[in-house]
Amino acid sequence: MPVITPPVDAGLAAWLKADALYVAAADASIATTWGTKATETTIISPIALEADADTEAARQLRFFEGPLVADQHIVKGLRHDLIGKLIRVKTRAVQALGYDTAQFVFVIAAAESDTSDTTTLTVLKRLS
Question: How many CB atoms neighbour CB 122 within 10 A?
Fold first, then answer.
């Protein structure tokens, strides 16, 4: 029996095929603080509105205003994919990781274990 696929709206099809839209945010004082160790992050997300993307870019930029401290955590799974990403420590993991509140951390390294299904993440977190 043939599979009948309903037609896709032409406007939706064009939107799905379009290139991603990018929003950039920069802060001269943060760039000066980090110097040659500064990093550029890129995140592809389903954010559709430019105003929402601007808000998200500003949130990520505020994270790097510092001061920051390095921390390490062992997490389940092979998570090399997290390097270079700003991730939110979920509320249920806060106590296990020794944090006072849920917060964002920036993953700077990930060492996947050869003997277990775990990864040691090295992260930067803000001091409050």
Answer: 16
